[in-house]
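QA checklist item 7 of 12: single-chain prediction sanity check.
[x] sequence parsed
[x] length recorded as 262
[x] structure emitted
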Amino acid sequence: MTSSAIVSDARLAGWQVLYEQRSFWRNRTRAFFAVGFPMVFLVVFAALNKDATVDTRGGIAYDTVFLPGILSYGVVMATFTNLAVETARLRDAGMLKRVRATPLPAWTYLAGRVGSAVIVALATTVLTLILGATAYDVHLRPEALPGLLAALALGTAAFAALGVGIVRWIPNADAAPVVVNVVLLPLTFISGVWGPSDGEPAFLAHLAHAFPVQPMADWLQQCFDPRLHGATLAGADARVLAFWLIAGVLMTHRFLRGTMES
């Protein structure tokens, strides 16, 4: 592929991102559940636990633990949930197969959809951080910014890949929200998303750490923990997320090869 062809395809991918963004924000219900829903949870849980502290974490404020947990949930909603449900719908409508009949290369179409989901995840992140700092006095440790960026980048990539790849096991578009929630919700409850999970049984802790939700939530919580110092580059959490990123890429490749090329 020549450099001019690469530039042309990249331009097409950019236009696809723009199209996907317009489609996403025009669907207000979809936009609310992807971006507004995590904000609602943050406000409700912060109100229910006002002035509470977490004894198992040195008495730090509850909000300091909960905000990064709900931030991880927001990223998962923007990428994994959003891509899984929409990709299942597009598959059932025959849209993925129709891409072959257009001048648009398959990879640019996929890049456009994933790129749009990443933008939504970024918007969710910015809103969560602003709300946390202004309303709940939860601030990121400045030296932890590299860790925060690394956690968000690796987590977003992993959940985006898994969001497309899991559609291979979703029988139809109507079942997509059910399958996604059956997979996701139990993991959020044992992964410290809705509150500290320090006292849960050991087997649940090991199970949670084997899946990507808990490593991302834990890594982000370390970035906000005032007791810690340094860049907070969590090696164990990064390795789990990297594993699921590779698994998601392989799953996506198998799904697209079977759907777009059959």
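[x] summary fact logged: Residues 62-92 form the longest helix (31 residues).
[ ] second reviewer sign-off
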